[in-house]
Structure formats: structure tokens, C-alpha cells
């Protein structure tokens, strides 16, 4: 059964972690591209007549109203580039993904190249089994698994 470290390593070696970082960055940079409110259709059945009718429920709004009391906004600033950079740099999800990537890169570099190759080969595809890893690198299955456990143990302490 895959645990947190397995998922992080699989995301890293398949390139999914880079894709998640890029996707989150683009999402934060383009917040106002689709500035429409989002509505969800809610179908209700009339109890008396049995007819169906659709109501619309507001589920998401991107508009931010800083001027809640009427009058003019006096201290409103318009610095879209700075606001976007603050959103990107202070986003907890993006910071967590970047930290995971940096930790994996930093700690994998400390292992021997053979161990790095075995772990990279195993996590690069879900279809790879320990038998294939052992045949590819001319080692026993148990050795390959021990190398993976060693790397997971160290990364588990860091992540």
C-alpha cells in the first residue's frame, strides 16, 4: 500500500510534481481571467404538481468587494503585478509542493548513483515490478527493495 513518501516519489519521478507546481502557479497568476460568478443548477420537484423546475445556486465568486459600506474607496490600491507576486509567494499549497521537490532533489543527490537509478526506474512507471528492476540492474529483488526502504526512511524524516 502506498504511503505519503511513495506518492511524493512517484509524482517526482513521473514529472507530475513539476506539472502540479506549474499548474498551481498559472492558477494563481490568472485569478481574474474568468471573473464571472459560478452558479450550479439545482433541480427541484414541486410537491403539489410534480413538475420539475431549476433554481440556480451561487457556489463561487471571484469578485472581491473592498468597499462594503458605500461611498468611495479611499485607500484602494491597484498594483496587479505586486498582488499577483504576493499571491504566488505566499500560497501554502505552492510552497509545500516546491519544498517537496527541493527536499527530494537534495536528498537523492546524497545517495549512490546506483540507488538513485533503481528508485527512479521503479517510481517512473506503475507497471514496473521489483522483478523488472532486478533484471534491469542485475541485482536481487531484495537488494532493490532494501535500497528503496533506505531512501524512503531518510526522506520520511525530512518530508
Description:
The protein has 159 residues and is mainly alpha-helical. It has a domain at 81-159: Arc Repressor Mutant, subunit A, CATH 1.10.10. Helix content is 57%, strand content 11%. It is built from 7 helices and 2 strands; from the N terminus they run H-H-E-E-H-H-H-H-H. It has helices spanning 4-14, 16-29, 80-90, 92-108, 113-123, 130-137, 141-158, and strands spanning 38-45, 52-60. A hairpin with a 6-residue loop joins strand 1 (38-45) and strand 2. Helix 4 (92-108) packs across helix 7 and helix 6 packs across helix 7 (141-158). The longest helix is centred in the last third of the chain and has 18 residues, at 141-158. The chain is flat. It starts with a helix and ends with a helix.
Amino acid at each position: 500500500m502506498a504511503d505519503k513518501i511513495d506518492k511524493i516519489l512517484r509524482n517526482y519521478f513521473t514529472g507530475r510534481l513539476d506539472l502540479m507546481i506549474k499548474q498551481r502557479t498559472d492558477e494563481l497568476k490568472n485569478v481574474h481571467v474568468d471573473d464571472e460568478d459560478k452558479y450550479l443548477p439545482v433541480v427541484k420537484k414541486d410537491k403539489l404538481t410534480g413538475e420539475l423546475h431549476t433554481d440556480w445556486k451561487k457556489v463561487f465568486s471571484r469578485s472581491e468587494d473592498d468597499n462594503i459600506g458605500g461611498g468611495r474607496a479611499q485607500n484602494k490600491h491597484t498594483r496587479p503585478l505586486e498582488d499577483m507576486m504576493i499571491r504566488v509567494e505566499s500560497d501554502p499549497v505552492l510552497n509545500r509542493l516546491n519544498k517537496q521537490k527541493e527536499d527530494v532533489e537534495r536528498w537523492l543527490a546524497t545517495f549512490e548513483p546506483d540507488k538513485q537509478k533503481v528508485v527512479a526506474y521503479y517510481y517512473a512507471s506503475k507497471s514496473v515490478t521489483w522483478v523488472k528492476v532486478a533484471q534491469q540492474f542485475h541485482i536481487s529483488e531484495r537488494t532493490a527493495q532494501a535500497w528503496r526502504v533506505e531512501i524512503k526512511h531518510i526522506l520520511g524524516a525530512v518530508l
